Amino acid sequence: MKIQVNGERKEVPDGLTVRGLVEFLGLTEGPVAVEKNGEVIRRARHIEESVREGDVIEVVHFVGGG
User: Is 62 exposed, middle or buried (0-12, 13-18, 19+ CB in 10 A)?
Assistant: First the structure.
């Protein structure tokens, strides 16, 4: 299915949840914040929130450093 992630069109597998999308994108190291179609998706909902054709997703991956 086709969605938009951080301003880029992407082809991703059907049936993903937000958590599945984060894993598909390889962003499993450290916390992430996800917005879907203008709504922030709480981390507790990442495993149940479905990603659908045409969704607009913004993912912010937090990286520590000093």
Answer: exposed
Closest among 53, 54, 47 to 20, alpha carbons compared: 47
Q: What's the pLDDT tens digit per position in 4-59?
A: 999 999 999 999 999 999 999 999 888 899 999 999 999 999 999 999 999 999 99
Q: In what order do the strands lie in the sheet with 2-5?
A: 8-11, 2-5, 56-61, 32-36, 39-41
* Exposed/middle/buried for residue 11 (C-beta within 10 Å: 0-12, 13-18, 19+): exposed
Angle at 37 between CA 33 and CA 64, to 5 degrees: 15
pLDDT of residue 62: 77
